[in-house]
Amino acid sequence: MKIAQEILADLRFGFRRNVPMIQQSETAECGLACLAMIAGYHGYAIDLPSLRRRFGSSLKGVNLSQLIRMAAALRLECRVLRLEPQDVSKLRMPCLLHWQGNHFVVLVAVHRQHVVIHDPARGMRVLTKGEFTEGFAGVAMELTPAANFQPAEQKVSISLPALTGPVHGLRGALMRIFILAFILELLAACRTFTLPKIIV
User: Fold this and answer.
1) Coil vs helix vs strand at 37
2) What pLDDT score was predicted for residue 81?
3) Residue 158 pLDDT
C-alpha cells in the first residue's frame, strides 16, 4: 500500500514536471533515449530521429564520453560518479545510470523500499532495492542545465510526401485507370447482351 502511495505521489509530481518516457527503437539506442528523456525533463524536447540526425548513430551504441559530448551540445553539464547502490539517493535526479554492464537507464526516484527507473528497452520499472542492486553497474552521470541552457523543441516532422516520395504523373495515371475501368464496365455490359439464352 505504501509503495502504491509513493508511486502515486511520483505521478502527481509528474503533472508539474515529469520525466518523459522515450523507448529505444534499436538495440544500440539506449544512451540516446536516456539523453532525450533527461533533456526533455529540463525543457529541451528532442526525439530520437533528431538526435540521430544531429549526432549520427552506430550499431555499437554510445559510451559515456560520447554522451558527455552530446549533452554539452545540448547545453547540459555532466558529472560522472562511481558509487554504491545505497548512495544513489544522493544523486540529482533524473540522472543516467550504467545498467547491467551494457545498458543505460534513467533514475527517476528513490524511495525507502523501491526505486523507479525509466528503461528505454522496457518502459517505466518499479524495482525493489535488491533488484536495483543487481542491475546497477556502479556508474552514474548527472545532467543539469548549463548557464547558457535554453528550453527548446527539436522534433522531426514526417509528412505524407516524405513517406511516399515524389509522385510524378499522378494525374495521367489516374486518368488511365479511369479509362480502363470504363472500358471494362463497357465490355461487361456488352457481354451481358450477347450471352445466349439458356432454356431449362
Assistant:
1) helix
2) 97
3) 56
Q: Where are the alpha helices (DSSP H) in 15-128?
A: 30-41, 48-55, 64-73
For cell 527548446, the residue is 152
What are phi and psi for residue 41, nearest 5 degrees?
Answer: -60, -40
State the fold for domain 17-154. Answer: Cathepsin B; Chain A (3.90.70)
| Domain map (residue ranges) of the chain | 17-154
> What are φ and ψ of residue 151, in 5° steps?
-60, 145
**Between the CA of residue 88 and those of 18, 77, 129, 140, 179, what are the distances in Å?**
19, 19, 11, 8, 71
Q: Which pLDDT tens digit goes with each residue over 48-73? A: 999 999 988 777 789 999 999 999 99
Give me 185's grid cell: 464496365
Which one is predicted more confidently, 86 or 7?
86
Length of the chain: 200
Cell numbers found for residue 136: 546497477
Query: Looking at this protein, which amino acid is placed at residue 14?
Result: G
What residues act catalytically?
30
- Structural element, H or E, at residue 82: strand 76-82
